[in-house]
Amino acid sequence: MPATPQATWWPRSLSTPRLHLRPVEPGDVPVHSRMWTDAEVRRHLGGPVDAEVVRARERLCVGAPGLLSIVRRADDEVLGSVLVQPDARDGRTEVSYQLLPEHWGHGYAREAVTAVADWATAAAPGRDLVAVTQEANTRSRRLLEALGATLAERFVEFGRAQVLYRLPTSPR
């Protein structure tokens, strides 16, 4: 399938009963920086990001296409992020996500990934939608499997065993 221009493909925001997913705003940058440097968040993502890389990301993340802050509607607290990258993996659209540890186990990641996957499936029918995680990341793997994702590939990347899941292409 041909590439889809991100400028017309990506939504301004998405909402769920508990969450608002919207482009990163300047006030969100400290939360994103914390996610990039938190050892627990980064345990299955190659470890904390180098300070120089964090500074570069801080300059580039506000309004970056495909990167959304996950914001709790009840109090406007930024909980994490979700990223959608068209054509990231051999023409497939990749979804990735991360939340701060204090927000794990409340269903926020599931709610956010479901919203993004449903939107992406409707916006670009027929495109493969995938997510990659380290094989050792059992929490992420359980989440993807709970969403109906199926294990499609195993490979080594960044020196670690990885698994690629294909998400369902019909809305839940």
What report would you give on this structure?
- By secondary structure, the chain is an alpha+beta fold.
- It has a domain at 6-125: Gcn5-related N-acetyltransferase (GNAT) (Aminopeptidase, 3-Layer(aba) Sandwich), CATH 3.40.630.
- The protein is built from five helices and eight strands, in the order H-E-E-H-H-E-E-E-H-E-H-E-E.
- It has helices at 6-9, 29-37, 51-60, 108-123, 138-146, and strands at residues 14-15, 19-23, 67-72, 78-89, 92-99, 129-134, 150-157, 160-166.
- Strands 1-2-3-4-5-6-8-7 form an eight-stranded mixed sheet, sandwiched between helices.
- Strand 3 (67-72) and strand 4 (78-89) form a beta hairpin.
- The longest helix has 16 residues, at 108-123.
- The two termini are 23 Å apart.
- Residues 1-7 have low confidence and may be disordered.
- This is GNAT family N-acetyltransferase.
- It comes from Streptomyces gilvifuscus.
- Residues 19-170 form the N-acetyltransferase domain.
- It holds the Pfam family Acetyltransf_3.
